[in-house]
């Protein structure tokens, strides 16, 4: 019946309310937390709290129900719906009997699959997105035409790689480095891009990929901060590369058609070679004017969208491929001094002569000149040639426009990389064998000189090749910037956001502005290395991403591309760094500094997010390995760190939406040295777990937010239990893992239990202490929490330790940790020891001093003998407190005796039989009175007092123990009651 009702509701298009599983921040998050103020002038510890009170209905906001409208396809006829309903009812009982266990029918299962696969719901662009969504079974909206492997990846990569470097500088590189080192240069640079392509293929085939290309991959692998910093650098690299290609095209055009120059050309004379021919260079102003015009025209093409670019791309690429064919035909058909002087044709003698290198000085035009200012070596040639192999990201930049990113990016990019690398290797051999070295060094357009039938074909190929590469750069850069903006990490980039299926016009204008600004510079040799550095930063990021993901091998790491290994990715990353320094250490430092500044800016101003990046996985793996290496053995005292479990359940009230006493959080920070260590903040909600599970989630999120607000390094945990005692007993047994279990229980002393007549507090408080003793946990109880100083309040005086019982050195260590905080750094430590006889005083003092010296602790030792203790006077306030405690104990004993006589049973307290000796009770009361008097006498001006915690006496009522404790803490404003455990936390040895 439940299934049929659901179906009827769905068929009628009604709204179905489902519980939202997304954790929302509770109300009050983000408001300023006011300091704890006393609501009762007589009790500074009485503060109001409504956020964790178990009886308050508004303590934790319930998760709001979100309406998800489920409708049928609008084009389904009513007859089809009726037939579908009839088919559903044929085998209804059998299907319902199987699905009733899960509480939903098959249609809702389909709905869940649809939402999970993202067929009907678009995945949030950012992990912070969690807005209300409407899910319908309508036909998806038609999307823009997607590109395949050939048009979407291979051609853009080929156009970017086959650029101006090949046409106008490659033959000169062969002449300068020789055939042997030129082959080494091609293999060296090609290996870097090949390994990067392998890493790119592995990451891109590990799941669905949205827009942003390498930014999307790096951000999801290394986190949003690294992703945005490298992504913005890669955006700048693409924008600057567009200017480089435009300048190359314009320079080639003006060299081919000198008469097109508006301003006078400058002439660079050739010296030091047998072939003395003047080389003309176009004017800077001509480069600027033509470059700006070409950039604007290309921007108009980019504004037409991917569809127009795909139509225009063949018009640029086909002439380029034809020009390459003409170059190879011309090389094979060349003869001695034909088509120009210095062309030998394919000649073994030329091959031998050009095998070795000929590094030398050149002028600014690259022509050999003994008086030149530029010396070329292999490192310099790496910087000159490497832009010729960049461009492998051109396909991934358009990932949002691809039909199948997991197949197209690996296949298309690798095909383009291998094709161009093979072309460069063959070209080295052919250029080295077809001409003399002087011709290689002086003819910057040797590829056009040997082309068949006319050099003009190569001029056209150069211009179209560079324009095609510029077009691909100006297409990928805006989409990259829009993808970064859409992730909503940096609010300053919100102007570049773009809806799905729309063109990034604002980002395109911004890219064009950067491109034109670089064109105005007019210096190709200055623009080229800048762009190359940003490319290499991105390539290194891709390799490091693949290295990290492959090394961690998380369950989600299942790339379809199987030919990868973390070692190859690591070598690729190292090659990128080496090439950066080979090109220019100055440019390397500038680019890395820029990436670091962007990273720092994003970490400060950016919105936090969790993309499941590799660093999170690395932290997880490191934590697991560390935990396994720690094992379950006892931690050595030298490696002991306090892991406090801060019990937030207050003995009192707190302000609204404050889940933990502010000073308790401050004290938890005082237990860490320089922030090292972890705190676990725990609170308990009374009730049934099934009924209050949502309240626990809200409370945990609220507590986590408050911990972050108080800048405490720790985690929040909320436990639902029938009562506080049961909840704490479960916590103390199960909290933590291995040696990372909490070792110190920190809680507030219940100062208000008698004033508020809270008779249930003594039994709970004593039960918690006994649970800690049984579980072998140390205990620190803070009395006078409202007076505890915050980080801005400086304390002066002493930190007094009344070291009564052996506690493994915990009290001494806590005093040292307090001194590391700014609030107590001006204090000195005093250690008070109790001696039974006067004769033991000096020996005890010497022993304690030696012990503290060996522990590297500076403290003054004061020994108090029992005789001096007995001889001291008693203050009137303490005597009155002692008398009042005696009267309450006597009254309670009379009540127990009367109850036992009426019921004919032994003494019962807290539901357990007790055996109380009145003389022993008097002795306990007197002991605590004397210790309290001692503290008031010697530590009245102390900043804080530490005293050993006495264990609850066996078979004494809990209220009696509270009487002892109240008498101990009477009139002491700030007191830490400490109990150690059976482990040493300090050691004498190095």
UniProtKB/TrEMBL annotation:
Domain of life of the source: Eukaryota
InterPro entries: AA-permease/SLC12A_dom, SLC12_C, SLC12A_fam
Membrane topology, from the record: Multi-pass membrane protein
Keyword Glycoprotein: yes
Domain SLC12A transporter C-terminal: 662-783, 794-989
Keyword annotations of the record: Glycoprotein, Ion transport, Membrane, Potassium, Potassium transport, Symport, Transmembrane, Transmembrane helix, Transport
Residues spanning the membrane: 150-170, 182-205, 226-247, 287-306, 313-334, 378-397, 409-431, 451-471, 506-527, 533-552, 573-602
Transmembrane helix in keyword set: yes
Pfam families in UniProt: AA_permease (PF00324), SLC12 (PF03522)
Entry's Gene Ontology cellular component terms: membrane
GO MF annotations, alphabetized: potassium:chloride symporter activity
Domain (Amino acid permease/ SLC12A) ranges: 152-620
Localisation per UniProt entry: Membrane
Family stated for the protein in its record: Belongs to the SLC12A transporter family.
Record protein name field: Cation-chloride co-transporter
């Amino acid at each position: 019946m439940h299934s049929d009702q659901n179906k009827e509701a769905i068929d009628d298009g009604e709204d179905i309310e489902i519980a939202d599983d997304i954790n929302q921040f509770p109300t009050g998050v983000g408001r300023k937390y006011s300091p704890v103020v006393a609501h009762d002038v007589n009790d500074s510890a009485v503060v109001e709290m409504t956020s964790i009170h178990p009886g308050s209905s508004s303590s934790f906001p319930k998760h709001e129900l979100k309406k998800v409208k489920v409708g049928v396809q609008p084009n389904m006829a009513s007859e089809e719906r009726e037939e579908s309903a009839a088919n559903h009812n044929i085998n209804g009982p059998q299907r319902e009997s199987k699905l009733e266990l899960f509480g939903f029918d098959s249609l809702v299962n389909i709905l869940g699959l649809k939402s999970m696969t993202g067929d009907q719901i678009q995945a949030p662009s950012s992990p912070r997105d969690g807005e209300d969504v409407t899910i319908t079974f309508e036909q998806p909206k038609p999307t823009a035409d997607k590109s395949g492997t050939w048009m979407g990846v291979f051609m853009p990569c080929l156009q970017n790689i086959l650029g101006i470097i090949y046409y106008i500088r490659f033959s000169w590189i062969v002449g300068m480095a020789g055939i042997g080192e030129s082959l080494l240069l091609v293999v060296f640079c090609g290996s870097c891009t090949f390994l990067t392509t392998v890493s790119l293929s592995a990451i891109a085939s590990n799941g669905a990929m949205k827009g942003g290309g390498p930014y999307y991959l790096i951000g999801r692998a290394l986190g949003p901060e690294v992703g945005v910093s490298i992504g913005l650098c890669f955006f700048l690299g693409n924008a600057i590369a567009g200017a480089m290609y435009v300048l190359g095209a314009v320079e080639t055009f003006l060299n081919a058609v000198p008469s097109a120059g508006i301003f006078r050309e400058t002439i660079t004379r050739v010296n030091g070679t047998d072939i003395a021919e003047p080389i003309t260079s176009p004017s800077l102003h001509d480069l600027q004017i033509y470059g700006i015009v070409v950039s604007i025209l290309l921007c108009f093409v980019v504004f037409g969208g991917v569809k127009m670019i795909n139509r225009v791309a063949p018009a640029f690429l086909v002439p380029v491929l034809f020009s390459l064919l003409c170059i190879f035909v011309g090389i094979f058909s060349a003869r001695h001094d034909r088509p120009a002087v210095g062309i030998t044709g394919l000649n073994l003698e030329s091959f031998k002569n050009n095998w070795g290198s000929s590094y030398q000085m050149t002028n600014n035009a690259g022509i050999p000149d003994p008086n030149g200012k530029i010396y070329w070596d292999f490192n310099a040639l790496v910087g000159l040639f490497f832009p010729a192999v960049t461009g492998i990201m051109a396909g991934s930049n358009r990932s949002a426009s691809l039909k199948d990113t997991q197949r197209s990016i690996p296949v298309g990019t690798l095909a383009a990389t291998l094709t161009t690398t093979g072309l460069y290797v063959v070209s080295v051999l052919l250029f080295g064998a077809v001409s003399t070295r002087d011709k290689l060094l002086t003819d910057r357009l040797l590829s056009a000189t040997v082309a068949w039938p006319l050099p003009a074909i190569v001029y056209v190929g150069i211009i179209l090749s560079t324009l095609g590469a510029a077009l691909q750069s100006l297409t990928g850069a805006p989409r990259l910037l829009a993808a970064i903006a859409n992730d909503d990490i940096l609010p300053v980039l919100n102007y570049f956001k773009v809806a799905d299926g729309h063109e990034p016009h604002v980002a395109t204008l911004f890219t064009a502005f950067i491109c034109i600004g670089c064109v105005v510079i007019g210096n190709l040799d200055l623009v080229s290395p800048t762009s190359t550095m940003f490319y290499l930063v991105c390539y290194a990021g891709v390799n490091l991403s693949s290295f990290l993901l492959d090394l961690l091998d998380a369950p989600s790491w299942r790339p379809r591309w199987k030919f990868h290994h973390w070692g190859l990715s690591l070598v690729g990353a190292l090659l990128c760094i080496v090439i950066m320094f080979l090109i220019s250490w100055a440019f390397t430092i500038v680019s890395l500094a820029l990436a670091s500044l962007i990273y720092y800016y994003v970490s400060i101003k950016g919105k936090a997010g969790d993309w499941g990046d590799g660093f999170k996985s690395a932290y997880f793996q490191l934590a697991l390995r560390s935990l396994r290496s720690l094992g379950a053995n006892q931690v050595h005292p030298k490696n002991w760190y306090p892991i406090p479990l801060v019990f937030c359940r207050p003995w009192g009230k707190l302000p609204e939406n404050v889940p933990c006493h502010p000073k308790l959080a401050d004290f938890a920070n005082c237990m860490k040295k320089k922030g090292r260590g972890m705190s676990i903040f725990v609170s308990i909600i009374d009730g049934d777990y099934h009924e209050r599970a949502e309240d626990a989630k809200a409370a945990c999120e609220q507590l986590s937010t408050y911990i972050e607000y108080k800048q405490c390094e720790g985690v929040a945990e909320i436990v639902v239990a029938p009562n506080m005692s049961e909840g704490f007993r479960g916590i103390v047994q199960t909290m933590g893992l291995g040696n990372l279990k909490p070792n110190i229980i920190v809680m507030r002393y219940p100062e208000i239990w008698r004033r508020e007549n809270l008779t249930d507090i003594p039994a709970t408080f004593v039960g918690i202490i006994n649970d800690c003793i049984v579980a072998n946990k140390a205990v620190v109880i803070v009395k006078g929490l409202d007076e505890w100083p915050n980080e801005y309040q400086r304390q002066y005086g002493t930190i007094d330790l009344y070291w009564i019982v052996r506690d493994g050195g915990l009290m001494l260590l806590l005093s040292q940790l307090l001194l590391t905080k700014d609030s107590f750094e001006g204090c000195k430590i005093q250690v008070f020891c109790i001696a039974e006889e006067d004769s033991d005083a000096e020996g005890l003092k010497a022993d304690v001093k030696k012990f503290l010296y060996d522990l590297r602790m500076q403290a003054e030792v004061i020994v108090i003998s029992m005789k001096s203790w007995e001889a001291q006077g008693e203050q009137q306030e303490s005597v009155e407190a002692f008398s009042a405690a005696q009267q309450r104990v006597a009254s309670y004993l009379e009540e127990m005796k009367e109850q036992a006589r009426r019921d004919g049973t032994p003494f019962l307290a807290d539901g357990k039989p007790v055996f109380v000796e009145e003389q022993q009770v008097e002795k306990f009361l007197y002991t605590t009175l004397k210790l309290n008097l001692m503290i008031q006498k010697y530590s009245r001006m102390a900043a804080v007092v530490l005293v050993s915690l006495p264990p609850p006496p066996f078979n004494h009522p809990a209220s009696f123990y509270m009487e002892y404790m109240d008498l101990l803490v009477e009139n002491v404003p700030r007191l830490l009651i400490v109990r150690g455990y059976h482990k040493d936390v300090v050691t004498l040895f190095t």
